[in-house]
Predict the structure.
Amino acid sequence: MYAGPKEILQVGERLKYEVSFLGINLGTIEISTDGTEDYNGKKVYLVKADIKTYDGIPFVDLKATFNSWADASLNHTHKFTSNMKKGDEQWEYQQLLMDYDKMNVNMKVWENKELTAEKDISLDSKINDGTSLFFLARRYTKLKRSIKVPTIIDGSLFNTKLNFRDKTESVEIDKVDYPVRTKYFDGQADWEGLYGLSGRFEGWFSDDEASVPILAKMNVYVGKVNIELIEWTRKGWTPPKGK
């Protein structure tokens, strides 16, 4: 029915995407699976997202790194950190530590290495952050139903709705000289993330066991952006051919 974590997760995988708006290239997102770790007796995968805008883009200067300690099941996360540029000389570092025995999250925020906020957040269920959510979506692309995923964004809890429609489509991207066979899904983010990411989104993931995201469309401050795969490192993987 859907891919298992072992098919999705591959240490050393690197996926690089270019973000564009109305044909203007804004920057890149690079997603990597950097290794495994024993975290409080649980096997976790260290996954990272690096986001940055190109030099010279007017009114936009984004640099951010997100790290997630994703459960081996790809159903939830155990720890999350982020480091984001907030100004010319200002950086914000955030840490979330999930304690599922106590069903809470400890959140700490630093501004330029000075602790500025700390709080505990009660949980009703296990949760995902924005980075681990990327991998959960890959696992369930062929689920054939909709799900709501408890998601934590900037210390607040929301639901992310994912509609897995089992709809096969061929899409074209610049880096592949043939149509790529994909599974289409869409969803709704009832939260606001980096650069105003919110609302409805669409995704096309490779129609194979790896379920590699090929193309996405998301809403941010400037409007709907395209996020297209431009580079990849994944042993044994070639984008599947569509019609």
Observations:
- The radius of gyration is 18 Å.
- The longest strand covers residues 24-39.
- Helices lie at 5-8, 130-139.
- The chain has two helices and 14 strands.
